[in-house]
Structures are given as C-alpha cells and as structure tokens.
C-alpha cells in the first residue's frame, strides 16, 4: 500500500532484519560485524537502521550494543522477540500509517490475518478482507458504503428504489442488486463483478470516466497514468480470497508477498529484488503464509526462514 507501509522497501526490510537478528543473537560478533559492513555501504542504510532502532525502542526494548554477561537462554530470547515483534508492529502502525485512525473510527474494520462478514440493515452482505475498513450510510433513497482502505466483497439485496453505491478513492460503483468486489490498495482501486451488472464512475485529475461492467468484468485505475482500464476476470475468481485462497496469473513474487503480509500476524521480509521480480501463476492457501511462500518460491530457488512464528524472511537459497 503506497505511502502506508515500509513493507515493499528493501532497505527498510534489511534494516529491520538486522535489528531482529541482533535481538535473537546477543553478543554475536559476526552478526555485528556484518551489520556494520551493511551500514557502511550507504547513508540510506544508516537512516533506515536508525528508524528501525527507534521503532524498536518505542516498544520498551533497547538494542544491545555489547553482549550481556550472562545472556538469557535461547528459548527466553525467542519468546521475548515474539512479543516485541508484535508490539513493534503496533508502533510501526502508529508511526507510518497516516490513515490508521480511519481504521479505529470506521464502522467496520479488520486487522492482519482477519476477515469479517457483516449483514447490513437491508440484508446485503459485506465481507471485509484483512486490513480493510469501511463506513456505511443508509437513507430512504440511497445505500452507501465508503471503502476507506483494503478490499471488500458485496452481495447486494435487490432494491430498485434505493441504489447501492460503493465509493473508494474517487471511484463509485452503483448497483441495484449484484455480487462484486472492490479493492483500494494505496493509490490503486479496482472493481470485479461476479454476477449482475455495475456502473462505474471515476473522477480523477479533472477527468470523469465511466464504464458498464457485466459478469466477469473488471475496471482498474492506478496511480500510474490514472486512466480507467477495463478487462475480464474469471467470475469464479472474484472474491476467492474469502475462502483463504489466492489465485494469481503472472503476478510478481513481491505482489504475492504483499497479499500474504495481510494474512500474516507478523512481518514478512523480502530481501532480494531479483527474486521479488519473478513471475508466479497458481492458487495458494493464504491461511498458512509460510506454506504458501514455500509453494511460490519453489520454482525460483527461493526459501523461507522462520526467525520466530511472527517473522518470515524470504530470500534466495
């Protein structure tokens, strides 16, 4: 999500990885030496590392510079890192998610690894994907949902007297009764139709663009160019994430990792830009991100290291 996370910044991920490794291996001079070499490579590394240290300290921890005289057992270190990583995630959210308050004060929202089904007053059903938030406003002549961030699937109860309107980042989707999903990730917004028809309108940069979509139709507006693109998607794949499955066709490893991050209650670090650019096609189980990552990486010679149950590191073998 552009502007909302460090998740796709390899320098930030490497800095965070060094901080975590130092916590897991207190007093390991080889780790410290390799960290210092990495820091000396560029000022950007130093800035990212200082920010990672600052966020870590906000959790109440101090990054050790020298070994403790009697370091705690391996088991105690791992338990401590697990709890700190979770606290660190909360600190990161407060520092780098400018829209985080919208989640806290929205009508409905979900966290990482969570989906939520909501039945509205008109018996329409909304399913929120992980890390999503929405507000709902019903009146006598209109049913409106504002998708603040994330992704949602809608199964709308027919009511011709009251159109059902979903808005997200300048895009509005108007229906009277149908099933579709809307996603809003960073500056990108899209709608996919499982059944029925929808009318799409986009107001962006002084332009007004419209499209009519039927079953299997897809409309997408990205931050790059800002034009409204229309294509097709298999209807059976619309909202497939509700069952915990991710279907991709030619997506990059980085894009798949971004999806799995939303389902993982922790941190997934992707460190290699060449591996991140590899293309992937398949259907993966998002309910177990580590297993899904193994399947994604197998054709490309990658591997997943599990530092703790909450920290997964993706890298070449």
- Beta-strand portion reads 25-35%
Sheet having the most strands = 13 strands, mixed
Write the H/E string, N to C. Answer: HHHHHEEEEEEEEEEEEEEHEHEHEE
Give the CATH architecture of the largest domain. Answer: Sandwich
- According to CATH, what is the class of the largest domain? Mainly Beta
Count of discrete alpha- or pi-helical segments spanning 4 or more residues: 8
Radius of gyration: 22 Å
Number of domains: 3
Count the beta strands.
18
Structural class computed from helices and strand pairing? alpha+beta
Mean pLDDT: 81
Q: Give the fraction of residues assigned to helices.
A: 25-40%
Distance between the termini: 28 Å
CATH topology of the largest domain: Jelly Rolls
Give the overall shape. elongated
Low-confidence blocks of residues: 1-8, 58-80, 93-99
Pfam families: DUF4880, FecR
Protein name: DUF4880 domain-containing protein
GO molecular function, one term: sigma factor antagonist activity
InterPro entries: FecR, FecR_N, Ferrdict_sens_TM
């Amino acid at each position: 999500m552009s502007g909302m996370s460090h998740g796709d910044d390899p320098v930030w991920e490497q800095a965070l990885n060094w901080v975590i490794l130092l916590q897991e291996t207190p007093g390991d001079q080889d780790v410290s030496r390799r960290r210092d070499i990495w820091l000396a490579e560029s000022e950007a590394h130093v800035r990212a590392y200082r920010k990672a240290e600052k966020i870590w300290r906000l959790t109440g921890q101090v990054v050790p510079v020298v070994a403790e005289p009697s370091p705690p057992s391996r088991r105690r270190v791992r338990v401590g890192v697990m709890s700190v990583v979770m606290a660190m995630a909360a600190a990161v959210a407060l520092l780098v998610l400018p829209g985080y308050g919208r989640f806290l004060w929205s009508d409905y929202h979900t966290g990482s690894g969570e989906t939520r089904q909501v039945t509205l007053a008109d018996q329409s059903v909304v399913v929120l994907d992980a890390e999503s938030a929405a507000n709902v406003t019903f009146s006598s002549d209109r049913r409106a949902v504002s998708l603040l961030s994330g992704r949602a699937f809608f199964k709308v109860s027919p009511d011709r007297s009251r159109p059902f309107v979903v808005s997200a980042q300048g895009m509005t989707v108007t229906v009277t009764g149908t099933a579709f999903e809307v996603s809003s990730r960073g500056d990108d917004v899209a709608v996919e139709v499982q059944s029925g028809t929808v009318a799409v309108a986009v107001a962006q940069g002084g332009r007004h663009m419209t499209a009519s979509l039927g079953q299997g139709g897809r409309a997408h507006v990205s931050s790059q160019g800002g034009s409204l693109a229309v294509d097709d998607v298999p209807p059976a794949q619309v909202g497939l994430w509700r069952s915990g499955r991710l279907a991709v066709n030619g997506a990059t490893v980085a894009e798949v990792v971004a999806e799995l991050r939303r389902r993982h209650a922790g941190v997934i670090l992707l460190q290699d830009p060449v591996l991140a650019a590899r293309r992937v096609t398949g259907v993966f189980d998002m309910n177990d991100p580590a297993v899904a990552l193994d399947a994604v990486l197998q054709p490309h010679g990658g591997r997943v290291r599990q530092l703790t149950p909450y920290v997964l590191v993706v890298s070449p073998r």
